[in-house]
Specification:
- It is a single chain.
- This protein is α+β, with helices and mostly antiparallel strands.
- Helices cover 43% and strands 18% of the residues.
- The protein is built from twelve helices and 14 strands.
């Protein structure tokens, strides 16, 4: 991703790293794809190889005659291990930590191909660069915050962190109590803070579902979201066009190489030399076919009318978007995004929570959810009127 360049300094000539005109684009693309998170590492490697990635070629010379090339290395597709080594190398964020720095990370006299924030995002905590008191630190395999501050996440009670107790406005508990006949009764409750509140899981989930069915996306946000999707689509199309241009240039370069090989073969008499040249020509032709095939797959267009219709459908059927996931914990996370402030169970029943700016209650549902029971009693049970 870099190449050396000599510059004049007050201490004489020094060598610094500058972005390589061709290779730097591949490194930046690796980080961008890792940050996007839409592809796993194997798919990223496959995608880059489709676009024509090849490692830098290095020539092996005769030790007795340096002008004579006796072999070459490189020119190979990207592998998974190579990808990991590049993404985890802090030099691409402009940070050096090598033998000559005594393994102490220092900021280089060159600009990194990516920022420190982009480097940390791409590495997802496995390798992290931190700046503390003008000192640069590199953390490796630092535990994520969620590993240090653990919380119980039980898929049987996914909403307990996203709905609060109406008495103390704190997260609910979730557990199942056993009856006299040995049957278990799951419920959300708050009975460990000096008051009693308990709702059976079935009623609780029905209240959640009824409330979500009464929500809608505000019309203003619908238009904003559609504009955002189109803008994102246009940016992706520009990236695809750049990729196709890069592939076309690579194919043109290979075609030129193939013609040069054919011209050389005409002047050769050695069968061994002709054999090696023909093998080289076959490899070049195979590489061109592979790039052409990858480009065709890249050119497969997506019907944006269908995409926009799907977006419109889910915006009109918000309950499917929020509660459609098969994973209970994921449904709860989507549910939490609906609110500007975590609601209490009573807020859901009465339809008075603080919703996110782009969410509103449907007119026909306003007042349809009302609390029942004694809200001041010590053993309050809140239910939902339906029908």
């Amino acid at each position: 991703g870099y190449k050396n360049e000599k510059i004049e300094t007050s201490h004489g000539k020094r060598v610094i790293l500058i972005p390589h005109p061709d290779e730097s684009k591949w490194i930046i693309r690796m980080f961008k794809l890792r940050i996007q998170g839409t592809l796993n590492d194997k798919e990223i490697v496959k995608q880059l190889n489709k676009l024509g990635y090849k490692s830098r070629k290095r020539y092996k010379r005769d030790p007795n005659d340096k002008t004579k090339v006796i072999g070459e290395r490189g020119g190979k597709p990207l592998t998974l291990k190579q990808f990991w080594r590049r993404v985890e190398n802090p030099v691409y964020a402009g940070i050096n930590a090598e033998k000559w720095t005594e393994e102490q990370p220092v900021r280089g006299k060159f600009k990194g191909l990516v920022s420190i924030d982009q480097f940390n995002q791409a590495n997802r905590g496995k390798v992290a660069i931190a700046e503390e008191d003008d000192q640069i630190l590199i953390h490796r395999d630092k535990p994520a915050d969620y590993r240090l501050n653990k919380q119980v996440r039980n898929p049987k009670y996914p909403f307990k962190r996203y709905v609060h107790c109406p008495k103390c406005n704190k997260p609910l508990y979730g557990s199942a109590s056993r009856g006299k006949l040995g049957k278990y009764y799951p419920a959300y409750h708050c009975n460990k803070r000096g008051h009693y509140f308990r709702v059976p899981s079935k009623d609780f989930n029905e209240t959640i579902e009824s409330f979500v069915r009464g929500l809608q996306i505000t019309p203003e946000y619908v238009e904003e979201l559609k504009e955002y999707v189109l803008d994102l689509w246009n940016k992706r199309q520009e990236e695809t066009q750049q990729d196709n241009t890069q592939v076309d240039n690579k194919i043109s370069e290979l075609r030129t190489q193939a013609k040069a090989v054919v011209e050389k073969i005409k002047f050769l008499n050695s069968e061994i030399a002709i054999k090696y040249m023909e093998e080289d020509l076959v490899r070049t032709e195979a590489e061109m076919k592979r790039l052409e095939k990858g480009k065709q797959q890249q050119d497969e267009s997506v019907d944006m009318e269908i995409v926009m219709d799907n977006i419109g459908y889910f915006l009109e059927h918000l309950e499917e978007l929020v509660l459609g996931s098969k994973k209970p914990l994921k449904r709860a996370e989507y549910f939490g995004l609906v609110f500007d402030d975590t609601p209490t169970y009573e807020d859901l029943v009465s339809g008075t929570p603080e919703l996110a700016p782009f969410i509103a209650l449907k007119d026909q549902f306003a007042g349809a959810l009302v609390p029942k029971g004694d809200p001041t009693g010590s053993r309050t049970r809140i239910t939902t009127l339906r029908g």
